Structure prediction request, 91 residues.
Amino acid sequence: AAAAAASATAEDTALPRRISQVDGKSDTELMSDSDSSDSDGEEEQAKDFVICQYEKISRIKKRFKAVLKNGILHMGDVDAAFSKCNGEWDW
Prediction:
């Protein structure tokens, strides 16, 4: 009798398997392709890119200066890893 009471208590406190969503769009609606603005379905790939952390970025008028660290630079067909990089450019 004690085992039956323990299993009944466990069933009473069990969480529901799925909680229904009552606000906003469902997960399938949020991830649908109909929301994208691309009609061809292909993603545009960046030709040249830098993936890194930044230490400092400063701007004076149109000139930017950046100190980057621990990164990878991909330019053309060349990949380069760096521990520290200084850069300047006009925007």
